[in-house]
């Protein structure tokens, strides 16, 4: 007896409720199906089904065994599919949700490269900072930048980002350069309204994470706007490196308080569930992780 074949037949019989229906579906004699299920019962030492001329019913042992068989057969199918897919070219449609600024600056070039490399994959890209409902909206993959995942999130970390404190040279010339995070209370800071932390910034001080309250007259839910405000001398901004690096390279702002690190950001690929992830989606996650890796 091939146990996997017998389990597969048992599941089919349980689902169709008939030995004859399964035999007809597979194009074999009814006796082939009954012998396999009987051999499985003999191997297990329990009755899985109660059979009569009119109906077929699962025993309590059969009901429990049915669920375990489904799990095992799904795992076998997934394993075989994975091996087969490795020999194939990714193909199919991927709906992906991307954060606006990071998506445009860092992810868009990678996604276009991926599209050129794998022409049989169709990409449907949504650039927005809103948190999408993956299952309800039919999204295959969402990229999120955060320090902390929510309970129940299914995610793969594909990169990290660093936060920088920046200000324009003119602002520092007028108001002085802070030497410690506590001095930010005496400065005009630029508030990011999408952050859950509100008007507080966190720094590592002497190896300990400390929270400092800041005040802000200018607030926005877009980091590029706030960094531009800093470049115009309107205050001090706390924004990720993928936004600030361009401004720093142009000499419009400079980093301050670099001796007091801010907890890094995680860049996560969020999945709708822990079900089998299609090969095309896994290929895209691998591609993005490689593209975001430090040089």
Give structural attributes.
295 residues, 42% helix, 14 strands, D-Maltodextrin-Binding Protein, domain 2, Arc Repressor Mutant, subunit A, five-stranded mixed beta sheet
Count of distinct structural domains: 3
- Total strands: 14
Determine and state the CATH class of the largest domain. Answer: Alpha Beta
The average pLDDT is: 89
User: Main β-sheet, in a few words?
Assistant: 5 strands, mixed
Please name the CATH architecture of the largest domain. 3-Layer(aba) Sandwich
Helix content: 40-55%
- Strand numbers in spatial order across the main sheet: 4-3-5-14-6
> SSE order, as H and E?
HHHEEHEHEHEEEHEEEEHEHEEH
Specify the CATH homologous superfamily of the largest domain.
Periplasmic binding protein-like II
Going by helix content, strand content and strand pairing, the class is alpha/beta
Our Rg estimate from Cα atoms comes to 29 Å
Supply the number of helical segments.
Answer: 10
């Amino acid at each position: 007896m091939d146990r996997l074949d017998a389990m597969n037949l048992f599941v089919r019989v349980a689902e169709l409720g008939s030995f004859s229906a399964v035999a007809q579906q597979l194009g074999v004699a009814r006796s082939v199906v009954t012998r396999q299920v009987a051999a499985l019962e003999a191997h297990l030492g329990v009755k899985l089904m109660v059979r009569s001329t009119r109906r077929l019913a699962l025993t309590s042992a059969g009901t429990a065994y049915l669920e375990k068989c489904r799990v095992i057969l799904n795992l076998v199918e997934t394993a075989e599919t994975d091996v087969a897919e490795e020999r194939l070219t990714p193909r199919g449609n991927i709906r992906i949700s991307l954060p606006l600024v990071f998506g445009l600056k860092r992810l868009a070039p990678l996604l276009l490269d991926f599209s050129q490399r794998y022409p049989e994959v169709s990409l449907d890209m949504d650039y927005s900072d809103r948190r999408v409902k993956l299952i309800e909206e039919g999204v295959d993959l969402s990229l999120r930048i955060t320090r902390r995942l929510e309970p129940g999130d299914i995610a793969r970390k594909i990169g990290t980002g660093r936060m920088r404190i920046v200000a324009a040279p003119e602002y520092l010339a007028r108001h002085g350069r802070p030497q410690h995070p506590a001095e930010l209370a005496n400065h005009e800071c630029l508030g990011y309204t999408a952050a859950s932390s509100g008007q507080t910034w966190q720094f590592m001080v002497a190896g300990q994470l400390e929270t400092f309250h800041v005040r802000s007259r200018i607030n926005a839910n877009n980091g590029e706007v706030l960094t531009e405000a800093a470049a115009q001398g309107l205050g001090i901004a706390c924004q990720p490196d993928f936004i600030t690096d361009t401004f720093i390279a142009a000499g419009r702002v400079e980093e301050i308080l670099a001796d007091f690190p801010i907890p890094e950001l995680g860049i996560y690929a969020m999945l709708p569930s822990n079900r089998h992830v299609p090969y095309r989606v896994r290929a895209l996650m691998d591609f993005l992780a490689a593209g975001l890796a430090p040089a």
